[in-house]
Write a structure and sequence with these properties.
Two copies of one chain form a homodimer.
Chain A lengths: L4 H11 L3 H10 L4 H10 L15 E9 L3 E9 L2 H4 L2 H17 L11 H17 L4 H19 L5 E2 L2 E5 H12 L4 E9 L3
């Protein structure tokens, strides 16, 4: 059965578990989100406490400078200073900084894409779709497909993680949420390139 | 004789020499800017080429993270990659990053202060000046004095440099412009504090 992106997103927000695992669980649960949570818990991926809903007030500011010419600074939040000082968490922050330097995302999550950017992209993809001469009925589907690609190219959390392109950055973070046992959120980042 | 801030600024732009030196030279030249340039050249502070007018296309991105909780990233431009790789230039970039972490400027230069911030500050200072009960004629002077203080508190280049508060950050940069022989400009910076 087809699982909607929105349902996957809901499950991820409830559990903090990565996208692929959430999708699999929802497929196995035939779209029943409560059942999917049970499946994830059985698989040891989600715990009862909804970690990804918890407030993140502490955290770490990390940076990565490539050759002096490209620089990234990122704020990654967690719940306690104890975790902020955890070497594993610090390694995660470093990895996220390096990822941003390499992959140049424009937004953190798809919700951050501004209305005008969205409208412009849609317009371009619709033009391209029309140019194929295909029936009007499939054009919207083509545009949707291209928008998904746009999100995975421009939104940090949906980009393939540079150190392991089989998972997204959010999947990688979710792994740490499970491992460390605190909610982890990328709050903001900035990327400079000399002369930009 | 009293030298206007505007005249000092002109001389600084023409020569790239620090504020205090420019002011002294203008005083000695009785406000004649061309004469002041000659004085600065005699003192070995300015050279014929107007370095600070030259285009800066290269440079270095530097960062400074304090304890993981405060982070600064800065882009400092120079003219060539050769200078960007100069250890002295790199030390300057590090010093500027540290200065920003410690002194928390809001702008690079006074020209960057937005109109609404300016209007609001003026209003506050005028209120404070009126509260002293002094004659209307001196109120504007009081406001001007307070505005100067505002600039030296909030604008990076006018702040007292943390490692030597007798000079401003611009004075310190000007020293390097003379020493290294290329124009140097702070192009942009960002400062994060966890939870801000």
């Amino acid at each position: 059965m087809a699982i909607s992106a929105d349902l996957v997103k809901q499950l991820r927000e409830k559990t903090g578990v990565g996208m692929m695992e959430c999708k699999k669980a929802l497929e196995d649960a035939k779209g029943d989100i409560e059942e999917a949570i049970v499946i994830l818990r059985k698989r040891g991926l989600a715990s009862l406490s909804k970690k990804s809903g918890r407030e993140t007030k502490d955290g770490l500011i990390g940076s990565y400078i490539h050759n002096g010419k490209i620089g990234v600074m990122v704020e990654v939040n967690c719940e306690t200073d104890f975790v902020a000082r955890n070497p594993e968490f610090q390694a995660l922050v470093k990895d996220i900084s390096m990822h941003i330097a390499a992959s140049d995302p424009r937004f953190i999550r798809r919700e951050d894409v501004t209305e005008d950017v969205l409208a412009k992209e849609r317009e371009i993809y619709m033009e391209q779709a029309r140019a194929t001469g295909k029936p009007e009925a499939v054009l919207e589907k083509m545009v949707e497909g291209r928008m998904s690609k746009f999100y995975s190219e421009t939104c940090l959390l949906e980009q393939p993680f540079v150190k392991d392109p089989k998972e997204t950055v959010q999947d990688h973070i979710s792994l740490y949420i499970q491992k460390i046992g605190e909610n982890i959120q990328v709050r903001r980042f900035v990327r400079y390139r000399i002369g930009d």
